[in-house]
Amino acid sequence: MSPAEPLVRCTQAARTFGQGRTATVALSPTDCVVLPGDRIALVGPSGSGKSTLLHLMAGLDDPTRGEVTWPAIGSRDDLRPGHVAVVFQGPTLLAPLTVIENVALPLILDGDTDARARATAREALGLLGLAGLADKLPEEISGGQAQRVAVARALAGRPALILADEPTGQLDRASGQVVTDVLLQAADHAGAALVISTHDMSIAQRFAVCWQLHSGQLTRTTADLSDPAAASIEESSWSR
Questions:
Q1: What class is the 8-89+159-238 domain?
Q2: Section 184-213 average pLDDT
């Protein structure tokens, strides 16, 4: 993997759902790149195309126009479980498995032995302050803890790119800030780029680069989102 190349590149990538008169344009033709070490907040109201763009970048969906490539990684088949990790908004832990088994599972599926996968999983849990939850079932931990476990699972594979799709959307603001802390720390530890979609300006303002989506149209800014007046105006317009 070459550090000089983009981790992911979208070239006029667009996504339309349905056909004919019932077709819905989720993402208009979009050009963007994510470079190694990037910290990007992706903001916009519900239905603006945030999840669609992240799913294309993760290789979970195909564009209906244009293309998505991963120059520094390789082909789409090379993305998982190691190079690109996705953290979703909703619960993604497997209920019958313990916390450590949930974190270890992708590593086992990638060919690690059970012992090695568990050792790596335990290390990732420890880095996030979750070692004490290793033997608990998902139903025995809080929503915020479950999201942190999902981050540990993503981190365990030492990804080059972490894509977080509204990971704080079901949490209160304090818990959301904790999960954001964890994501930033995990990206720093793994040396990974991080792109997080959010509707919370208090989270977005922690990122140097902000991509804004409105009705499937992408714009980019490095403006100071910590300005309370600007943040208030933007947040009120996105919450409609």
A1: alpha beta
A2: 90
